[in-house]
């Protein structure tokens, strides 16, 4: 799953054109992202100061746990919001149109 599609495309679908909810959810996602980017390296650096081997093991375990948690959370949102299960509509430009079926 592409991180950009979850952060950008899914937020719009989940909020269902509610601009207030979109702004709030966007801000929360941004805060979570920045907090993780700040605290993750700091934590590993502190552990690495004590023991490099332990820092490697902790980093590996955190990566495995976060992948499992992330995919579970993505699947949960995907199945709870039926609009996400619909195929994405792509705008059709003039040169892409099929002359026989008039489809993209």
Keywords for this entry:
104 residues; mainly alpha; 3 helices; 71% helix; elongated
What distance lies between the first and last C-alpha atoms, to the nearest angstrom? 25 Å
Instruction: Report the strand count.
Output: 0
What structural class is derived from the secondary structure elements?
mainly alpha
Instruction: Specify the biggest β-sheet.
Output: none
Count of alpha and pi helical runs: 3
- List unreliable stretches of 5+ residues: none
Mean pLDDT: 83
Name the helix and strand elements from N-terminus to C-terminus, one letter apiece: HHH
- Percentage of helical residues? over 70%
Radius of gyration of CA atoms, rounded to a whole number: 20 Å
Q: What's the overall geometry?
A: elongated
Note the beta-strand portion.
under 5%
Please explain how this structure is put together:
The chain is 71% helix and 0% strand. With 104 residues, it is an all-alpha fold. The longest helix has 32 residues, at 19-50. The model has no long low-confidence stretch (mean pLDDT 83).
Condensed summary:
This protein has three helices and no strands. It has helices spanning 3-15, 19-50, 52-80.
SSE blueprint:
Blueprint (H helix, E strand, L loop, with lengths): L2 H13 L3 H32 L1 H29 L24
Helix pairs in contact: 1-2, 2-3
């Amino acid at each position: 799953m592409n991180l950009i599609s979850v952060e950008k495309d899914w937020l719009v679908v989940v909020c269902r054109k509610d601009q207030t909810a979109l702004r709030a959810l966007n801000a929360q996602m941004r805060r979570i992202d920045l907090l993780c980017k700040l605290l993750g390296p700091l934590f590993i650096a502190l552990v690495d100061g004590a023991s490099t081997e332990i820092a490697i093991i902790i980093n590996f375990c955190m990566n495995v746990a976060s992948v499992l948690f992330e995919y579970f959370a993505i699947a949960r949102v995907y199945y709870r919001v039926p609009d996400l299960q619909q195929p994405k509509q792509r705008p059709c430009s003039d040169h892409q149109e099929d002359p026989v079926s008039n489809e993209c």
